[in-house]
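Re: the 605-residue chain
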Amino acid sequence: MSWGTELWDQFDSLDKHTQWGIDFLERYAKFVKERIEIEQNYAKQLRNLVKKYCPKRSSKDEEPRFTSCIAFFNILNELNDYAGQREVVAEEMAHRVYGELMRYAHDLKTERKMHLQEGRKAQQYLEMCWKQMDNSKKKFERECREAEKAQQSYERLDNDTNATKADVEKAKQQLNLRTHMADENKNEYAAQLQNFNGEQHKHFYVVIPQIYKQLQEMDERRTVKLSECYRGFADSERKVIPIISKCLEGMILAAKSVDERRDSQMVVDSFKSGFEPPGDCPFEDYSQHIYRTISDGTISASKQESGKMDAKTTVGKAKGKLWLFGKKPKPQSPPLTPTSLFTSSTPNGSQFLTFSIEPVHYCMNEIKTGKPRIPSFRSLKRGWSVKMGPALEDFSHLPPEQRRKKLQQRIDELNRELQKESDQKEALNKMKDVYEKNPQMGDPGSLQPKLAETMNNIDRLRMEIHKNEAWLSEVEGKTGGRGDRRHSSDINHLVTQGRESPEGSYTDDANQEVRGPPQQHGHHSEFDDEFEDDDPLPAIGHCKAIYPFDGHNEGTLAMKEGEVLYIIEEDKGDGWTRARRQNGEEGYVPTSYIDVTLEKNSKGS
């Protein structure tokens, strides 16, 4: 089936059909464009919706914590990703379908115009040949009629007896002329007719079929292009279906992650104060004074005054029991004794070291008088620094449970910053080694200021961690020490020296921990145990010094680069390792300054 053979006489119809095809192509392109606009507007509205309901938090305290809130925000994130996929669909349609359609429509118009111009030229040439043939035909016909008239005139004069010989001869010449002209026009007409027939055959069997074939191929390509665009239109949507499915699955997982029990526990953790509920209010018998007055008859002035004082005191006590719902009354100070300086009870019955303003003044007076009641000034200094720290820095204005939580969060943040600084120091050391091996790459000395700054940051962060751990230990009722964790015993010393000191580090020996005395008598010996010497600990490995360490602070051990030491206690997370020389000298060295090698089963040897 070919348009050239089947539709040889339908040039105008093919012209209209090809124009309709291009119009339909452009109409579909307009449809795709509107679909793209819909997708873009839909994605934009989804993003605005997500932005509207996303939390506008300025600090970490406002971050969502409840599982229902976290699930909702996860759904918003998935919806934002879903909006992104709608944008991908719009971009794919715009690039693969709409843009391709517009370029193809432009090329199609140009090609169609060229083919139609060729067809019109062929038709015009055929019409020209037809006109030439028709003119020669008409001229031949006219000359033939003139020749017939000349012949009739000659025959009439030849048969007329009255006609002169000259007239007859003239008519004969005219007949010969007309006959000659008719023969010439006849030959010309034959030639034009033959030429026209050839051009007409060529036009309808060669030229027009070729042009119509090109138009047919063009129209078929247009149809194929539409088919490809239909497929691309669907593929643009189908490509994002897996990702959209993942977004929907993420929404389902977010819904499944909601835990009502966990949310309830978070409410408890957020608002728990740590205080014990108030006890029962005791019965205050105000009638005792009346009954005593009636029974005694007369009361001296001193007894009356005493009774009034007792009544006032009783009323004050009764009011003090309702401190949870009003202003908390100031507790009456107990008699000033050395035991009241250091002993405080927790709800579970344990005792820990606390200080107040009056006991501290008492301790200072005792130190000045030289009475051996305070075990060490270092313990006093530690308690003073823990208790009298900044109100906002140590969160002392918060309830115990909330204070513990805030301190733990700050310690975690400081540990993360410490890890970053440690990684940066390791990277700088590696870069320094590369520069030392390849001087053309850089100057190793240029890294020294940055390395020193990093070391200072590490020391500062470690001091901050120790300080916050001390406050956390105070909140947890473990100010005197813990067996599984060490921290500095002198926070003020850490701040002034600019480098952490392990002099107050905790050891595994529970006898060395500073604790409050369980009784008022005999507290001197328990506090003096802090300064008693322990038996030498067995070596659990060895280490090699990577950098020299001066060890100026108390409790540290100086070492030289390349020196080998015994490890007797691992790093507990504070950045210090306990080591011993071969001569028996012990102390703490920075863990980052040594290369540690631990030996298996070395503690039992």
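The two ends are 101 Å apart (CA to CA).
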